[in-house]
Amino acid sequence: MDSQHHWMAHHQTRSIFNLILPGTHNSGAYTIDPQSFAPFTHTWWLGCLGKRFVITQTRSIYQQLLDGIRSLDLRISLHKNTPWVSHTAKLLPLETVLQDVCRFVTHYPTEIIVIRLKGDWGYEPASWDSTVSLFQELCSELLIPVSERGLSIGEMVAKHYKVLLFSDELYNCGLQNCWPSNTWLAERWHDTASLSILKAKLFNDLTTENTTGKFIMTGPILTPTTSFIKHVYMRMLCSCVVVATDDGPVEWSELRDMAKDANSVALGYIRNFKQQISVKNFNILQMDFPSDELISEIISLNTTTT
């Protein structure tokens, strides 16, 4: 797996826009701040249930990058004027994530990291000033300017440009070298708990040419519905919850179960339709709980696509 640490070293003459990147969805959701569920300590099942649908990863940000992930999805909330990465619950300080990113690109200077950052739904910061200040303090020199988008990866890293940041909020607050998501990024979010619907939409994403002129982000992401979560509430003491879906009963009890089946679909498509999958169609495949095997297969697409 050591080759995953610096896999972009083999693509230095190419543009970052001409690669397919493995990414994580809600990248910071590998941990939860203990205080997030403190109000529910007297109701153990509520805290336990929340964790089933908050956690989307098993590895730290630094470990994700070591394992080949090159796109991070960060949702931000503000607590005592400190920006936190969150996923409904507080996860960890944004500062910790940015320190991991800076440490990684220092150790592996051939690599570029894409960050998509926005407010956590329903918990958006009232002010983005402290988030802007944190980026200015920790990694302003690493941010790739829009004006340099024509450079190859090798040319970018030679200028010490290591981070491509998409964020409407930070762009609107005047953060230099931040790319407005609305202009440059298109996310194909399917918002479904149905495996059959996801299969059809994901196949279309992977094999249909992108005509938007934007950086395209998609992924095998299943979204738990309110009905699904209610089933889990009702059967919390069971080791597995059988939920009625459009595909019939599926044994899922948490996001990890949903991700396992969704990622299996993506892995099958990549292996069986590799010649039809191209960077002309999409740029980032973001995932919950990605396996090393799936990350490797996504990286391998860059040896068959131009």
UniProtKB/TrEMBL annotation:
InterPro entries per record: PI-PLC_domain, PLC-like_Pdiesterase_TIM-brl, PLipase_C_PInositol-sp_X_dom
Chain ranges of the Phosphatidylinositol-specific phospholipase C X domain: 10-168
One Gene Ontology MF term: phosphoric diester hydrolase activity
SMART domains xref list: PLCXc (SM00148)
UniProt record, GO biological process: lipid metabolic process
Protein origin, superkingdom: Eukaryota
Gene3D superfamilies: Phosphatidylinositol (PI) phosphodiesterase (3.20.20.190)
Name of the protein described by the UniProt record: Phosphatidylinositol-specific phospholipase C X domain-containing protein
